[in-house]
Amino acid sequence: MKKWIFLGIIFIVFTVTGSVWANSVQLSDAVKLDEVIVTATRTEQAIDKVGGSSVTVITAEDIDTKKQIVVGEVLKGIPGIDVVGSGGPGTNTSIFMRGADSKNTLLLIDGVSFNDASHTTRSANFANLTTDFIERVEVVRGPMSALYGSNATAGVINIITKKGEGRPSIYAGVSGGSYNTWHYHGGVSGAIDKLNFSILGSSIQTEGFSIANDDNDDIPHASNTSEDDGWKDNSIYGKIGFDINPDFDISANFLDIDARVDNDDWNWFAGYAGDRFDNDPITWLPVPAPNGPKKGKGENDQACGKFNVHNYFLNRQAESTLSFQGSRHKTAGFDNDGNEFYDFKGTAQEWSWQGGYTFRESNAINLGVNYSIEKMDSDSSNINNTDAVTKSIWIQDQVFLGDNFFLVAGLRVDDHENFGNKTTYRLAPAYHFNGTTIKASYGTGFRSPSLFELYSAFGNEGLGAEESYGWDIGIEHAIMSGIMNAGITYFAMTFDDRIDWDPNRIIPGNPFPGGYNQFEGKTKTNGVEAFLKCQPNSDLNILINYTYTDTEDPDGKRLVRRPYNKISLNTKYRILRKGLVNIDVYWVGERDTITTAMDKNGNAVEKLDAYTLINLSLQYDINDHLNVYARVDNLFDKFYEEAWSYATPGASGYIGMKIKY
Length: 661
Hints:
By secondary structure, this protein is mainly beta. It has a single domain, classed as Maltoporin, Chain A (Beta Barrel), CATH 2.40.170. Helix content is 7%, strand content 55%. It has five helices and 39 strands. A hairpin with a 5-residue loop joins strand 20 (318-334) and strand 21 (340-359). The longest helix is centred in the first third of the chain and has 23 residues, at 2-24. The protein is globular.
């Protein structure tokens, strides 16, 4: 109880202090444009009309201000989200939303699922996603299975790509800096009569640094952490649309990523990462082998695409969208001797129809049907052409009572060929009055086991679906006509029959214990998300986000790599109309490590220390066609780890330019 009182006091102090400050500065007239979000309701809707959904929108302007080139970096600081990388650029990057596992977050690109059907838990890897093609990122926190089915049990991240608009234009950019990093990008976009188009490409290459952390004094150094682990990423994206008439249009888009990253070893018996391990010939225990070949690498080929046929009817009261979409993920790993030791290929395809009808702008009904099939092949895991089919139907009602009360209610039935029917639902009401919004949501969810969890050598065909439910309640308040906004939300989620690795499971024919199992009991997460946003004048924007997250597995232990407390501060200041300074400050509290983490002396490592990071970017428009910029990450060269013994960037600087016509 004390912690909630403390958090409430912090919120009140933020609000009152900010109100006094806002009254003390010279204010300019503020014009607030309605932000539109698609993900919360699967329809284009103003952000203040999506009921009680907890949403965050990152715009292309926000991304351009930070000058970060990978999606994981721009997600840091968002309330309720923890970004955890396993080493340098290009290495696996996981997202924990509201304390849940990464498998409980659904990643979409223009509504296409980008979770990997061949991943061990059907999670999404954000490592190779660059920001060049992004118009905005929509984040919806809380159970969303009622709209999106499996894997959306903690929330959804939807990357909306750029659409060609206005007069055709072309741009090109280049940047370079620390770790011999180079980023080349360019594209063409625009609209000609009824045709719109956008084609963009980017290439990133960096020598990187040793994934095994050379700054960590508790693991062996010398040659064991001296090898640089590089990353190469080539991406191409395209979107094209044609307006046959004002009420009928067709569109298509695609994304293709070809990436390679150098890897180090992680040895469970040693408990830390290293360039290379061998087994001692007498004890057979792992020992660092820095003088042997170090050719470990991973290769990733990722792609997704979508084709849409969209119609309006009955004076635009009725709407229909027919879609075909799919994604492909191919990964391969090579050991330190250059031999391939794993390969995975996962594909997902979906045929869908979505319709809607609006009744006098006070009520909108939407419904949809989906037929999806996911497949997996892996020679290394003896999985050949394994697939699973899911058929779904869903319905949603959006109720608008004047400008004050909004309610979103949804129901979905998924028919999975292995687990039968699963029904999920969601309610999300909100009430606005005098600049204040009271909001809430409640939803249920499920996650079907991945194909790897079912059919790999460590799999378990007896697994059932995970089930969950979650709720939140919050209040937001606008001060002085939106010059300042503050909000606080409490959330809680519960997961039943959670699937996880069981080190004690005995598999017939396998001499080593371990495999996937379903654990009885409940896994719980709960916490608080708070924000304070202030724009005292047209040149200055300040945003403070705070997240408190408590987690507990069925044995009463915390989930690993989730901090109790996290604070972010973003400040943007425009100078002389053509210049812009952006400062990001991140403070992340102490976190638990995985149970196998050990130091070089065999001592268990249980905690990762708290840390503070400061990132700085500056840019200036030389003229209407040329923009130059500089960026410094980890300004004060802070040592920190997001995962035990895996390195993170030290102080690093980059400069670049962008030309457009």
